[in-house]
Amino acid sequence: EELGVTTEFNYFDIPLEVLKQRVEKRNEEGGHGVASITPEQLDTYSELFEKPSDAELKLFDQVSIQDRKSV
Fold first, then answer.
1. Would you give per-residue pLDDT tens digits along the chain (71 residues)?
2. Please, which of 8, 12, 56, 66 could form a disulfide with 62 given CB 3.0 to 4.6 Å?
């Protein structure tokens, strides 16, 4: 707020299998700027990812968490 701006955090809590289906579809559709991601790469990335903690979420002015049902 000191700078006159607000921070916003959007987090999508989607199961890995749903992400794999979406990435597979995106890979098939292709298009400008689309980089293919293999299921194995997604497995590796998912192991590195940590859900944001409550303390981290408190750092933002606005927080939006979408689950599988809402996306």
1. 578 889 999 999 999 999 999 999 999 998 888 899 999 999 999 999 999 999 999 999 999 988 876 55
2. 8
